[in-house]
């Protein structure tokens, strides 16, 4: 991965509209909405605000009054994987959804209006990895970045990048930068010259029970302490904390199994 900021603006400030293709929001659909709020509220210090109603039982997570993420409740009869889903900004979600289909992806939800907040679609790339598309109206997406408790990066883990990089470039207009290494299949996606997301091909190392998937990284002040807190709150540590060029990283799961990463900036 690499470092990425939010939309133009100072860190911690309320942001204007995101450039198309920029990750602007992350959302989690869980079975137990109340218990999930308690877990993330204690882990990241989030408060919650209801809505929009069109999404069913759904809350927006707030950090010091600024919106950072969304959590919704799955219908009782829907036995779907519980996972964090990144949303990418679009000026025209209907057009983007059509491009997704033309490029070999699928659209499973929408496009549909979310009250006066905006318009959304949820789809998957040709490898099956799920992502969202968001056309902002009253809700631009996350309004704060670069502080503990906020999403700072999204990585796609897939079999190999060659099969999906052209898909994302065509759908969202990304420029790309590949890691020059014969044994490391990694591509960074750029918007306006800035890195915004990564594609990581891992071949046979991809767990069969997961398939290709996006992982959201949340910034924390202390990865080791946050990792311990995840376990105390009923979650699991999947990959213990380790140092990287981008910070100290751990991969964890919440009590329902939703995977996400914790990252502490290098000291």
UniProtKB/TrEMBL annotation:
Residues 22-136, 150-265 form the VOC domain. CDD domains: SgaA_N_like. The keyword Plastid does not apply. InterPro entries: Anthracycline_SecMetBiosynth, Glyas_Bleomycin-R_OHBP_Dase, Glyoxalase_6, VOC_core. PROSITE patterns: VOC (PS51819). Transmembrane segments: none annotated. Keywords: Lyase. This is Enzyme related to lactoylglutathione lyase. It comes from Streptomyces achromogenes.
């Amino acid at each position: 991965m690499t470092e990425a900021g939010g939309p133009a603006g100072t860190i911690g400030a309320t942001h204007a509209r995101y450039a198309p293709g920029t990750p602007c929001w992350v959302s989690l659909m869980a079975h137990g909405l109340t218990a999930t709020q308690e877990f993330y509220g204690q882990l990241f210090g989030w408060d919650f605000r209801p809505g929009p109603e069109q999404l069913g039982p759904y809350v927006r997570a707030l950090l010091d009054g600024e919106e950072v993420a969304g959590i919704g409740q799955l219908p009782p009869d829907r036995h779907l994987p519980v996972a964090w889903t990144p949303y990418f900004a679009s000026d025209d979600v209907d057009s983007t959804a059509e491009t997704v289909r033309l490029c070999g992806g699928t659209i499973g939800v929408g496009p549909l209006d979310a009250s006066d907040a905006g318009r959304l679609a949820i789809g998957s790339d040709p490898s099956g990895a799920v992502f969202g598309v968001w056309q902002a109206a009253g809700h631009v997406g996350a309004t704060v970045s670069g502080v503990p408790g906020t999403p700072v990066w999204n990585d796609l883990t897939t079999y190999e990048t060659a099969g999906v990089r052209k898909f994302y470039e065509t759908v969202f207009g990304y420029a790309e930068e590949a890691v020059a290494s014969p044994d490391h299949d990694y591509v960074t996606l750029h918007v306006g010259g800035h890195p915004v997301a990564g594609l990581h091909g891992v071949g046979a190392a991809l767990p069969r029970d997961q398939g290709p998937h996006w992982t959201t990284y949340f910034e924390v002040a202390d990865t080791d302490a946050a990792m311990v807190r995840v376990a105390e709150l009923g979650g699991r540590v999947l990959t213990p904390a380790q140092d990287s060029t981008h910070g100290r990283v751990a991969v964890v799961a919440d009590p329902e199994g939703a995977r996400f990463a914790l990252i502490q900036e290098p000291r």
